[in-house]
Design a protein that fits this description.
Layout: H1 2-7, H2 9-18, H3 21-28, H4 34-48
Helix pairs in contact: 3-4
Length: 86
């Protein structure tokens, strides 16, 4: 499987996922073999790792429950003498 996915990770990765292969790989992590577990984890991380939740994509939630923190602008132009002439 590693060799097949290596040839075209996006194309074959989609096919493996659509056929339930990713679910099978995840189930294989329960097998009582350290070697199988390590190989399966390597395959998942290498070819399917970007599909999980990325903590850098979701906004950070503040203690008040706000997802975004807005601040007052500090460098606001407050006046001036402008005239329009031709």
């Amino acid at each position: 499987l590693d060799h097949i996915l290596f040839v075209s990770p996006s194309e074959y990765g989609i096919l493996v996922d659509e056929c339930g292969g990713l679910d099978i790989l995840e189930d294989m992590q329960e097998i009582d073999s350290e070697r199988v577990y390590e190989k399966v984890v390597t395959l998942i991380e290498k070819y399917f790792g970007d599909e999980g939740d990325d903590e850098n994509v979701a906004p950070n939630i503040t203690e008040t429950g706000d997802a975004f923190k807005f601040q007052k602008p500090t460098n606001v132009f407050t006046g001036g003498n402008f005239s329009l002439t031709n």
